[in-house]
């Protein structure tokens, strides 16, 4: 088991977000976590990262080397784009490597910019570059393409697919098209408290059909 939630319960304030929630991920690859707003997707990522502790139950991880794109970008405003990315990398990272990755994320020539001068979509891609370049076994991405325009998004999806290899990636998204385009498996969650509704293997040969299927399942629930 690479990631396992065993009968995890968690209350946040008045809200019982999880009650006896179980989930086992056995293989590496990209998992899309899809479900309605407010159901608890970010909470799952926060539990994996140890930012929240369960009230009951257990979470087991095969590695604690985690990199993430959080709901907010969390860039350090006094450091440049290059410094923000390189400082988090857990290994020496040269300017050329960062520049090449940013180019693959449709963002050339911003290495020495400060985060405050970037658009929301650009800052999002810096946060994504930071997570991708960081040496990690688990990649947690909470709506990583928020604010990124359609043309760049396709390119960023390809780059993410190419660079996430060898890791276990959890991608929170509201977009069935994005999940079908990128993921190996979609995990549909929902309800209050949160429950696992369905897992769906995405067939790489027919991602368009998987997107339709996911749309249908989301509307049905
Ligand atoms: N610190 C907190 N105190 C009280 N309730 C909280 C707290 N943090 C989150 N919640 C509630 O827990 C629930 C799950 O929140 P979470 O952010 O995990 O949902 P989500 O599925 O990621 O939502 P979205 O898709 O809108 O980002 C929500 O109803 C939220 O209001």
UniProtKB/TrEMBL annotation:
Task: Extract the GO molecular function terms from the UniProt entry.
Answer: ATP binding; ATP hydrolysis activity
Which residue numbers delimit the ABC transporter domain?
Answer: 3-216
Keywords for the protein's UniProt record, in alphabetical order: ATP-binding, Nucleotide-binding, Transport
Q: Where are the transmembrane segments?
A: none
PROSITE patterns referenced in this protein's UniProt entry, alphabetically = ABC_TRANSPORTER_1, ABC_TRANSPORTER_2
Protein name per UniProt: ATP-binding cassette domain-containing protein
Q: Which Pfam families match?
A: ABC_tran
**Could you confirm whether the keyword ATP-binding appears in this record?**
yes
Q: Which InterPro entries match?
A: AAA+_ATPase, ABC_SmlMolc_Importer, ABC_transporter-like_ATP-bd, ABC_transporter-like_CS, P-loop_NTPase
């Amino acid at each position: 088991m690479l990631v396992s939630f065993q009968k995890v319960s968690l209350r946040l304030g008045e809200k019982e977000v999880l009650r006896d929630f179980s989930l086992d991920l056995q293989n590496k690859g990209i998992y899309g976590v899809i479900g309605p707003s407010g159901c608890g997707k970010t909470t799952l990522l926060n539990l994996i990262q140890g930012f929240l502790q369960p009230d009951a139950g257990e979470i087991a991880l095969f590695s604690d080397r985690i990199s993430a794109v959080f709901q907010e970008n969390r860039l350090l405003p006094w450091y440049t784009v290059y410094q923000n990315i390189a400082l988090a990398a857990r290994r020496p990272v040269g300017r050329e490597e960062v520049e090449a990755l940013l180019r693959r994320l449709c963002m050339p020539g911003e290495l020495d910019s400060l985060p405050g001068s970037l658009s929301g979509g650009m800052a999002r891609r810096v946060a994504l570059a930071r997570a991708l370049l960081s040496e990690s076994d688990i990649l947690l991405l909470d709506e990583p393409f928020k604010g990124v325009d359609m043309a760049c998004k396709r390119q960023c999806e390809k780059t993410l697919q190419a660079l996430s290899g060898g890791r276990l990636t959890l991608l929170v998204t509201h977009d069935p098209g994005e999940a079908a385009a990128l993921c190996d498996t979609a995990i549909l969650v929902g309800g209050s408290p949160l429950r696992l509704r369905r897992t769906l293997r995405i067939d790489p040969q027919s991602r368009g059909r998987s997107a339709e299927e996911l749309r249908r399942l989301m509307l049905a629930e």
